[in-house]
Amino acid sequence: MSNLRVGAIDSVNGNNALAIAADGSMTHGGNAMSTGMVKLAQAEWTTDTDGVNFDVFDSTKYINYKIYWWVCHESTAGESTTASWFQTGMCFRNASGNLDSSGAYDNNCSWVSSGSTDPDTNNAIGAGAKNRIWMCGNGNGYDSQGEGLISIPPHSDFRAAVCGQSQLIGAPRTSSGAGVNYFEEFSSVMMAGSTDPTQLTGFRFCSFRGTTGNYSKRGHISVYGIEK
């Protein structure tokens, strides 16, 4: 098998149109070509899992990250267990591990069911000073899907933040009727004052109930970096 080695492609008038560096990066008309979003990691599970760590932050390449997930809130033991996933959440990580101390995050969250037009804007379960970032809930009998934008400022004067949207899926797994699915919104700012965002290494995707010990029997999450 032969390899094609190309360092540059010229336009019809002889000017350099595309340059390819040794590391594979490309410039077009003198400007860097970007794919925009780069897939950094993913995880899928089909047996009880209480969370996944994604230590993928790289301040030289990214400030913003996108996540997409689908997860079952029920554990293999069933809907009655107190060890089920129940609510979706996350927490940041640094070199020492999970950052889930009391009041580490200032959360906003709201939801509206498909049977109502009035969102609950005072969610005492997930809002305010919490150990983890609330992303979707509540209930063992539900699944959830969602997306989130994570921003990690590359300077110690600023704070890491997350915002996004999700859906709590109640039907058809637990009901054949309408009115049991929920549109939800969330945002959170990391409030641990001694934590420099430039020291964050990544995050743990887990139950809002607990960083460990609360299980989901099926799920998937993908993580992307948005190039600077």
Q: What's the quaternary structure here? A: single chain
- CA radius of gyration is 21 Å
Instruction: Please give the number of β-strands.
Output: 17
The percent range for strand residues is: over 45%
Please, what is the average pLDDT? 89
Class by helix and strand content? mainly beta
- Report the order of strands and helices: EEEEEEEEEEEEEEEEE
What is the number of domains?
A: 2
> Helicity, in percent?
under 10%
Shape label: globular
What is the strand arrangement across the widest sheet?
A: 5-17-7-13-14-15-10-11
Essential attributes:
single chain, mainly beta, 0% helix, 17 strands, 46% strand, 5-stranded antiparallel beta sheet, 228 residues
Topology of this protein?
Elements: E1 8-10, E2 16-20, E3 26-28, E4 31-32, E5 37-45, E6 51-54, E7 62-72, E8 88-94, E9 97-98, E10 105-113, E11 128-130, E12 133-136, E13 143-151, E14 161-169, E15 182-190, E16 200-207, E17 219-227
Antiparallel strand pairs: 1-2, 2-3, 3-4, 5-17, 6-16, 7-13, 7-17, 8-9, 8-12, 8-16, 10-11, 10-15, 13-14, 14-15
